Amino acid sequence: MQLTFIDYNLLRLQNNTLLISDCGATKITSKRLHAALIELKATGKKSIDTDELNQIFTNNKLPTKNTKHFLESVINLKAAPDNPYYEKTIILHDWPVKGELEAIASQELNAEHAFFYNDNALIEESKNGAKFIKIINMQYDYSRIKNLYFKLLRLAPASAISVSYLTGKIFHVGQPYINELGNPCHFCIIDRQLNYEQRNPSRNSWTALMRFCHDQNIASPSQQLNLLQRNLAAGAILRKISLHTEYDVGRRFQDNAVSTTSVDLDTGTLTEEIVSHWHSCDCLRT
Question: Sorted alphabetically, which InterPro entries does this protein's record hold (predicted)?
């Protein structure tokens, strides 16, 4: 059986050790337990097989039952779910630096994931089972994205679909559309903005640009981002993916599970927004 636990740190004091985790601070007086905790942390993982954990206890001559009970309270040691709902995360993107997003994801995502670079390959992969589908657009092509998005809704009703996109120096990580919940989709935001822009032209330069590109059936251009800005965007994307696909990243609430996250790439300011349905959106008729 696989067990999970939260991250922790050990502070070596003069006569004992202080274990610090999200569960609080705990004094460790046993040298054997201290050694076992160091060995567990050295695995570099957030989950461990029961036999492997028992071997760590044996190596340090610790009682298995009592030690497990103690770790349950200080590092939230518990059994991992046997079958996560989303079998796999599949990511389609046009990231500006080749291989950069993949390298970051390999370090930050523990759940199974795969990257795709064309729409047809993503569609084929999405057909079987429940997937967490992530579409990342640095250049926003409205017609292409909408066609792909609603095709995926029809072909993969058990999956969740989230779109990330750039508006000037603000990067948005869209809320996942989950068919069973019937929550607002990506185009509840976009089509509402386009509709308002058509009726009442605003001073929002990106909305006006998107409206123009939509009318001309071309992709909206994106600004060139530096390394720090790309990392801020990547971090926001992977944080949202982890929230839905991994079991050790904290509690889920409606406010963080189905909200849109926006990151100001100049200041690093992060905001969350709950999106409402747009009455004319196609998701209400699928």
Answer: McbB
Token pair, residue 107, equals 């370090």
- Interaxial angle between packed helices 205-216 and 142-155, expressed in degrees from 0 to 180 and rounded to the nearest 10: 80
Separation of first and last alpha carbons in the chain: 40
The length of the chain is: 286
Which CATH number does the domain 88-284 belong to among 3.40.50, 1.10.10, 3.30.420, 2.30.30?
Answer: 3.40.50
pLDDT tens digits along 74-130: 998 988 776 678 999 999 999 999 999 999 999 999 889 999 999 999 999 999 889
Q: Among candidates 27, 91, 114, 28, which has minimal Cα distance to 237?
A: 91
The helices-and-strands tally (H runs, E runs) of the chain is: 10, 14
Sign of the C-alpha dihedral computed for residues 179, 184, 187 and 191 taken in this order: positive
